[in-house]
Amino acid sequence: MNRLEVEFLGVKFPNPIVTASGTFNFGREYAHLYPLAKLGAITTKGVSPRPITGAPTPRITETPMGMLNAIGLENKGVDAYVADELPWLKEQGARVIVNVFGDEPAHFAAVATKVSPYADLIEVNLSCPNVHGGNLPFAHDPQAAAVVLRAVKDATDRPVLAKLSPNGPILPVAAALEEAGVDGFSLINTLLGMRMDLDRKRPVLGNRQGGLSGPAIKPVAVRLVYELFRNTDLPILGMGGVTTGEDALELALAGARLVAVGTATFADPYAPLRIAAEVDRLLAGRGETWLDWVGAAHTPN
Fold first, then answer.
1. What is the DSSP string of the chain?
2. Which CATH code for domain 6-298?
3. Largest Cα–Cα distance in the chain?
4. What is the pLDDT of residues 195-223, one digit of tens each?
5. CA dist list (Å): 73 to 13, 217, 270
6. Which of 246, 250, 258 lies closest to 223, judged by CA?
7. Residue extents of the structural domains in the chain
8. pTM tops 0.90
9. Is the peptide bond before 58 cis (omega within 30 degrees of 0)?
10. Which long-range contacts (CB under 8 A, 24 or more apart) does 177-180 make?
11. Would you say 221 and 239 are in contact if contact means Cβ atoms under 8 Å apart?
């Protein structure tokens, strides 16, 4: 019996623990450690129409129970990834969620078209907080988000997830996206934050502000997944501060059908597999399956 097996938008996952975008690249750095097919799925780093050099350094700094990053969505551009990384990743037998973004709806659509042959799911990044100050119009504007979503849906035959920002109004944006035809949701992206360098009397990060991730944001993630689950029937990929099997089960109770692990992999590259194993042990001890927990906090006592 596979207690962890789950279907999400027509795709079968051997376990519900996937990697979070921006934390696992395309998997090459990890492939010598374990077969990538053991992961629930790999979510790629964000892919854009053209190469992006990213934000100035320093780009990462630690915080209590977390970290701030301002990578600035550095990437090689979609053509390079389609030529090299995505075919290789599919050869590993991994399930692939491709994160796509752009500065306007047509850019999102163009990337989605090119990556679709290699993607099981498309994740539309509406919400990176360390680009344009986290103020891209479609991150917080329901109608602008819907325009992006419709462009991507028209450009691909793959199921499309919208990645939502905790820095704006999640429920109005989600409602507009659902009306526009989104297949599911991914949340939360990082929270906007800063640190100061006391010696230089300046912000630590070269971009001044960045995205806060790690255990510190887990309560925010649990709350927002819980609230979204109450307002939609679409499946949810939850993330934010997951470092243990217990964390993953909290998000499942809130309503997440899949759970992504991100910051934890920087300290422990085996974190996604370890967390999946921890979840399996916890479920075995109770004689339950993962699906018994998904949304269970919403059922009457």
1. --TT-EEETTEEESSSEEEPTTSSTTSTTTTTTS-GGGSSBEEPPPB-SS-B--PPSP-EEEETTEEEE-----B--HHHIIIIIHHHHHHTT--EEEEE--SSHHHHHHHHHHHGGG-SEEEEE---TTSGGG--HHHH-HHHHHHHHHHHHHH-SS-EEEEPPTTS-HHHHHHHHHHHT--EEEE--PEEEE-EETTTTEESSTTSEEEEESGGGHHHHHHHHHHHHHH--S-EEEESS--SHHHHHHHHHHT-SEEEE-THHHH-TTHHHHHHHHHHHHHHHHT--HHHHTTGGGS--
2. 3.20.20.70
3. 58
4. 999 999 999 999 999 999 999 999 999 99
5. 27, 21, 24
6. 250
7. 6-298
8. yes
9. yes
10. 177/142, 177/145, 177/146, 177/149, 178/232, 178/234, 179/146, 180/145, 180/146, 180/147, 180/149, 180/150, 180/153
11. yes
pLDDT per residue over 156-188, tens digit each? 999 999 999 999 889 999 999 999 999 999 999
Token pair belonging to 88? 């290789």
Tokens matching residue 159: 């199921």
Q: Rounded to whole angstroms, how far apart are CA atoms 185 and 177?
A: 9
- Gap between the Cα atoms of 2 and 27, Å rounded: 25
* Marked catalytic residue, from 41, 42, 126, 128: 128
Number of residues that make up the chain: 301
Q: Which amino acid would we find at residue 193?
A: G
Q: What pLDDT, in 10s, does the model give residues 248-282?
A: 999 999 999 999 999 999 999 999 999 999 999 99
Report residue 124 CA to chain centroid gap: 10
- Kindly state the tokens that stand for 239: 């993330």
Q: Is 293 a known active-site residue?
A: no
97 upstream amide cis, omega within 30 of 0 = no
Residue 97 token pair: 């969620």
